[in-house]
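re: ur msg from earlier - yeah i can do the magnesium ion complex, just paste it... oh wait u already did. ok heres what im feeding in:
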Amino acid sequence: MRGSDGGVTNGGRLAALSRLAIEAGSPELARVVDALAERLREGRFYVACVGQFKRGKSTLVNALVGESVLPTGVVPITAAVTVVRHGERLAARVRFGERDWEECDPGSLATYVSEEQNPGNEKGVVAVEVFVPSPLLESGMCLVDTPGIGSISAANTAATREFVPHVDAALVVVGADPPISGDELALVQEIAREVADLIFVLNKADKLSDAEREQAIRFTERVLSERLGRRASPILQVSAAERLARAGPERDWNLLSQRLDSLARQSGADLVRAAEERGTAALVERLLGDLDEQEAALLRPLEESQARMEVLRRAVAQAEQSLEELGHRFTAVQERLYRPFTDERDRFFNQALPLAQRELQAALRAEPTAGPALRQRAIDHAIEVTKRWLDRWRQEQEPRVEALYRGAVERFVELLHGFQQTLASVSGVQGLPGPSVEAAFQTKSRFHYTDMLIVAPSSAPSRLLDLLRPGSQRVRAIERDTTAFLERLFEVNTARIKNDFQDRVVESRRRLEQETRDRLREL
Ligand SMILES: Nc1nc2c(ncn2[C@@H]2O[C@H](COP(=O)(O)OP(=O)(O)OP(=O)(O)O)[C@@H](O)[C@H]2O)c(=O)[nH]1
Ligand SMILES: [Mg+2]
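and the outut:
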């Protein structure tokens, strides 16, 4: 909708706002926007009757429209904001939650708006409107009865405070006992921030002596002026009860009627415009607030998953580093293991070799032949002797080696568990299930070594020389060569057994590390 000046009119702005609210998934906000648009279209403005409980606010509204349409009483009564507006005949409607308006009996309003029949607004009434054929309201002015503040019902105070943004002008009802409370002052101050037209009324004037009225009015005027920073006079003295009963003196009732009349005639249009501006701005802000919340709600899971990714990334980096440290520890364990076995191999080599050599020499001496065939016989003897000694040593060492190996693997797994615990202490990362000792033992614990490695005994020149040498020299040469051959066999094969052991330790470590890495990668 475009206004004559080419700009978007306020009605158009509200229609757009309503559409946006629907698109943003806020039907409740759209409903508030529509209600504002409707009341502005009809030129209605709200004069709210506010004040502490039991000031006679409901009675005052009744007196102003000349009919007892609102429930009143000696106990806190009004529990829901009630708009009294012009209608051709007396009627009422009520709205619950997000439901549509429902017609109701104007004589049964207490069912919806009274503290007794709807305590703390447990029925979920969100709006009540009473249509009254009162000339005062023909201009579009609506008198709004609000729940009294400061009573034991916090819900009542909250309902009134929630209505403050919709107030276009206010009838502030004060009394004499107390003249004005701290809660009332705070509420009036809040309303005065947005609203220029405040009418102050001292009700129940009939109950007070002249002196009491004077005192109460002086006090209230002073306190209000100080607080609001503007004149809070005159304070009109009335008796709503007398007025309703059409009894008693006039007091300031005519002045009050005139104030309201002139508000309706002179300021009505301004109030509607101001309500439009204020309402539109407030609703735009609310929609933006809703959108911000929705955006935050959308971004939250993203932020959370980013934060979790970051935790995981750090955990994995830390794990990689720990894994490297774990590697160093594994190496230390390995070194400690190798040493005793290397020592054992050296011990065996040093002790067994001379004995084996002696056995070989004895066997050679027992040989009937001293001819060139002796060399092959001697080689066979050397192989046989070495094999016997190595087999014996291997069998002897087997249980010991196995115990050492198991010890090493257990230590590996122990280190690994420590590593897993470090990882689990990083928040957001589940404990990493790691390989067990059994898994690590998948590597064979027994000697792979079974067959002896036979190194090449001697070269062809030795055999040729055997043919040329005289018998005794030949025997000595063969003995010397095969003793050396025996030593070589010892050396090569004990080294192989040692390496076999070391290989198995390395293999089980590799397996553990690999499995750990794979699991880390799965994170
Ligand atoms: N004497 C006297 N009594 C009044 C006057 N106005 C109201 N009352 C009585 O004061 C009591 C409270 O009146 P209500 O109109 O219910 O007061 P209220 O401010 O609407 O009360 P809440 O809705 O509970 O905040 C009722 O018993 C009224 O009859 C008045 O001008 N003079
Ligand atoms: Mg009331």
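cool cool. Residues 57-58, 77-78, 145 surround magnesium ion (ligand 2) (CB under 6 Å). ping me if u need the other ligands too
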